[in-house]
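Record format v2
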Amino acid sequence: MSLTRKTAAELGALMASGEVSAVEVTQAHLDRVAEVDGQVHAFLHVAAESALAQARAVDARRAAGEELGPLAGVPIAHKDVFTTTDMPTTAGSKILEGYRPPYDATVTARLREAGLVILGKTNLDEFAMGSSTENSAYGPTRNPWDLGRIPGGSSGGSSAAVASYQAPLSTGTDTGGSIRQPAAVTGIVGMKPTYGGSSRYGLIAFASSLDTPGPFARTVLDAALLHEAFSGHDVMDTTSIHAEVPPVVEAARHGDVAGLRVGVVKEFGGEGYQPGVLARFHEAVELLESMGAKVAEISCPNFGYALPAYYLIAPSECSSNLARFDGMRYGLRAGDDGSRSAEEVMALTRAAGFGPEVKRRIMLGTYALSSGYYDAYYGSAQKVRTLIARDFEAAFHQVDVLISPTTPTTAFPIGERADDPMAMYLADLCTIPANLAGNAAISVPCGLADEDGLPVGLQIMAPVLGDDRCYRVAAAVEKAFESRWGGPLLKEAPSL
Ligand code: GLN
């Protein structure tokens, strides 16, 4: 079996036993990138030489008898919104074209410490604003299941890289759904950890109270191994949680739902959802019941207000965070011919450097925060945020996890929603509540929709710091589907 078809856990074991070297594993994945990324466009930057150098270093340490972690030598694709000193960091924006950060993000540094081999940086919607990667200044990424469709977003380069076997693992960030939604529509696993469970230091900020780094993988165990490798307290991030990383790897190894109380969110999964998505979701509910879970419908009455609240809070924070891109400090500077004032240069730089969706968000945010409107918009949205957190609290008095479809539809055609922001925003209808409340949530594949043969994701939401519960349930679902289909059906389908 080709090395690119193996899981990260399998590759780690093969390297630990000396059956293959990190250089061989890295080369196999670089070959795969060369073979398919012309069609997929998952990567903005491929760092072949530095990847091979990292792999040689892992092999040398192993040859010297060093004990290395389970992911040492495993290749990874890294979302281009984390700073990296040895590769460009663009956040998918023209305004940061060619930018080389002076420091590594904590997530980047921890990947390196774990011996992971960074293959390159992946494409994303500009500043992680979007659900399709069509908002990237560097062109869209394509879904490996159907190259005419979107791979989700904003972490669409990362989901596509893993789904097309260019890397067994990748990083993402989830502010409103940007890990779970791309995972769902490309048939892989994507986890949004508890807010503050993974560090934001060196993550280019979109909405700081929501941004959460997390893992993508083709199996639940692989996602957990990566989750563990880069999570945990960081003194450089003031919102980082002071707590042990939940036992995610242990949970992923022991998928089991016997006796578990599962709540089906009543407000999600009705009208407006694709029939094939609903059919797979209802089957997953039956599957959980057949494995011994106690399933009940749970109402979360404020979840329906999550989307509008998010589209006030996230743009408000982004309008402040993106003020730093002024042509003075980083990247692009436009119109600086010696005749213009600093203010004029800033205005020209921002006009030329930001794409239309980023400008829309900045305008929405500055409007929501402006005097006279602040209480009506931003203030109300914050109140709704509290109500949503209370819905979760009430639900978790009754059940251990909540479930829903991850997305209302499967992957849509490139271009279909590009001119309709409202339709685009609906892709995150089910994922946003967990961001607003800071909860842990995962998407795991639960089959293919009958009408288009495209992957459907099951979302499992757990309380704050209940990340291990997400993995436990996801692992049970994964195992049940594998035995039903006689193999990892979803993981073999991409047609490249
Ligand atoms: N699609 C959502 C948005 O456009 C979420 C993005 C994200 O999670 N980064 O804001």
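Residues 126 and 437 are 24 Å apart (CA to CA).
DSSP finds 17 helices and eleven strands in the chain.
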